Amino acid sequence: MPESYDLTVIGAGPGGYVAAIRAAQLGMNVCIIEKDKPGGICLNWGCIPTKALLESAHLLEKLHSAKEYGINLSDPKPDFAAIIRRSRNVAEGMASGVEFLLNKNKITRKKGTAVFKDPNTIWLPDSSKEEITSKYFILATGARARELPDLPFDSHTVLSSKTAMIQDKIPESLLIVGAGAIGVEFADFYSTMGTKVTLVEMMDQILPVEDKEISTFLEKSFVKRGIRVLTGVGVSDPKIVNGKVKVLLKGKNLPEAVESFEAEKILVSIGLVPNTDSMHLEEIGIFLQKGFVKTDTKYKTSVPHIYAIGDCNGPPLLAHVASMEGIKAVEAISIHAGNPHHLSYIPIDYNAIPGCTYCHPEVASIGFTEKKQLTWVIRSAWVNFHLLPAGEPKPWEIPEVLQK
């Protein structure tokens, strides 16, 4: 007989494990299914370990300027293997913490990939083969890195954000395609390690979701540090030749319309693909749009007892958003099931979500930026405030600060 639960959560990332814990707190009998370590991409291969890498890079930069602080040091050099090892240890420690929380809340854990047999039943074909039925399901399957056409990831020359953080040596040169948060953060890290970095973005600015002058501010900082930044430039005809990557760069901002370019490695950070393509979702009646699960304002899918949260239901693709959506989805389920805890449903205000890119200088925004405001009929005024003349940045030797 299949095991049966009040709620089964598929995916133990920042949305899934938070949803499972909230459901257990509300008295539900909960099962969570994860094919890898708990914590998802953010904790194991994204937000957390990349911040550990960037902190090592930031410290190295500080050590290079130690004399400005009155400290004499010989030439500091990175121990790349130790930097990678520290990053992995940080992630593994956090994953252990999530395991502890799941066990503490008496949540049943299953390892494997879930596939729907019918709207009320899933099975785990790649592990135990067991079947599970549930009154409610939450899809929290996340997303994965998108590949360049005709250039699949190979972990050595063609890197995803995951494999970029576990390389065994510092590459001499690195082409980064895509200058969103992931591309910008890795450009910062590898440049500080000593790699010759070229950052390519097909839009007209790096960090395309940020306001133009913020992106320009960061670009100038990167260029000063020796990072080549190319905006309005696309990549075509990628190939691996003698262990290196060769591409054609095309764009109006190049000295010539087309440039042949070679690098030791390429990091592709051109967006994410939702992990919804192997679960038989459409076969059981769940509507997808470009692979993302369509939901209503309470995260309910087109199948009333199945909900979807986090990256698999579309932007904004942020870990803290997934966590809050997990809480809200569980509370919506509890209310739907008779509201025994007398909950009131308060929707998330998606206009007040903070975002941060942890490069140096860091970039953060919250609420209505000018770029977001342009999509609304709102009268507004904007002021840029350079904090360099103020006293606060000086003790830290921060070269320039821009606040908008």
UniProtKB/TrEMBL annotation:
It comes from the Bacteria. InterPro entries: Class-I_Pyr_Nuc-Dis_Oxidored, FAD/NAD-bd_sf, FAD/NAD-binding_dom, FAD/NAD-linked_Rdtase_dimer_sf, Pyr_OxRdtase_I_AS. One of its GO terms (biological process) is 2-oxoglutarate metabolic process. Gene3D superfamilies: FAD/NAD(P)-binding domain. Coiled coil: none annotated. Keywords: Disulfide bond, FAD, Flavoprotein, NAD, Oxidoreductase, Redox-active center. It holds the Pfam family Pyr_redox_2. Residues 5-326 form the FAD/NAD(P)-binding domain. GO terms for molecular function: dihydrolipoyl dehydrogenase (NADH) activity; flavin adenine dinucleotide binding. Its cofactor is FAD. Belongs to the class-I pyridine nucleotide-disulfide oxidoreductase family. PANTHER family: DIHYDROLIPOYL DEHYDROGENASE, DISULFIDE OXIDOREDUCTASE. This is Dihydrolipoyl dehydrogenase. It comes from Leptospira interrogans serovar Grippotyphosa str. LT2186. The lineage of its organism: Bacteria, Pseudomonadati, Spirochaetota, Spirochaetia, Leptospirales.
